[in-house]
Amino acid sequence: MNNLNFTSQYRCTKCHQTYSINEDILVCPNCLDEGILDIEYDYRKIKKVMDKNYFSNNHELSIWRYLPLLPVDEKYTKDTLRVGWTPLYRSHNLKKKYNVKALYFKDEGLNPTQSLKDRASVIACVKALEKNQEIISCSSTGNAASSLAGNASKLGLKTVIFVPKRAPIGKLTQLMVFGSKLIKVDGDYKAAYNLSKSAIDHYGWYNRNAAINPNLVEGKKTVALEIAEQLNFKVPDWVVTSVGDGCTIAGVYKGFYDLYKLELIDKIPKLLGVQSEGCSPFYDAFHEDRPLEETDENTIADSIAVGIPRNPIKGIQAVKKSKGTYVKVSDKEIMDSMKILGENEGIFAEPAAAACLAGFINARKENIINKDNSVAVIITGNGLKDTKNALKVIGEPILLDANLKDLIQYIERGEDKNE
Ligand SMILES: *Cc1c(COP(=O)(O)O)cnc(C)c1O
Ligand SMILES: [Zn+2]
Fold it and tell me: Residue 231 falls within a domain, yes or no?
């Protein structure tokens, strides 16, 4: 089955012009990089294959479970890493603490390279195979890079990756282990992005830059498809995710939109977009009802430190259309949330993922989310990627002499220097 049969066309999110899905374009030829394309589907056709039985008879526990809703040729999906079908945990401890009807955590840290980015990267790799390209390139704050490197390695593709100077060492280590050609740019994410763009134009490599490539939001939407299915298609009132370029939240909206159009769910959850106080271009634009403006990238949450988001239209529209909102959180709230999540739910989140919980907590305090609401919080990436920042909140471990007396004294003092 060639699943491209289910895609109908591209539509430019800026000028709304449509293009055939067979055209070899990544962005709208009229609007260029501002003309991010959206992939539209033939829901009538999909409905014929994707009803509730489709799911109960489906034993594929990866994003390929949703093939009719993905713009890829099935033929190239056989040998990928296993991406997706991450657990959706029902929370008891934090549900009680924050007093909501139901609370869930979608642990994206359990993807093959430990972040939600794998959902997009594996699609980029499959598209590169379809197009017979051997080298894929992107710029990244870290996760897209390590994710692309891992997924490409499994499929025998080469990668050239541009990262800003501040990318955490855990993420860089990952991508070097995966054999990527690493270009560490002396500058911020904007600088890394611009250099990657020039290089991609120059060499003709396949472009995984998430915002630009419309296929990638389609990969990211599988997180929403899974949340819905894991809740037996009774979707929560709110879904929370942090926002950098805007592709993740756009993907979350798209996934629920698809299911709504297929009449598998009866509403689209409200989306809560979370940004960091030190870098909040979406938050500011959303609340001031104006286009996005460039901002500093001043936050501990490196994965959402994006001063010029590349997917502004989709990122704003997703929240607007869902009737949700944007909130922002401080670095301190992010780091506190990392601890709260770890101690209460057994999930270790990287800062950009802990930001999602921090956003939920703030929205709950402000009663944007109320006690009668059910909520799914996406934990977008694993904390082991950035232990240096985690140790700043948790404190260094205490060293004891190897004797029982000291141990007893330590335990009975109840002293915990970390408190
Ligand atoms: C990339 C990323 C995000 C934000 O996704 P965008 O598509 O850039 O908005 C959030 N959390 C983590 C861990 C990420 O890697
Ligand atoms: Zn256009």
Answer: yes
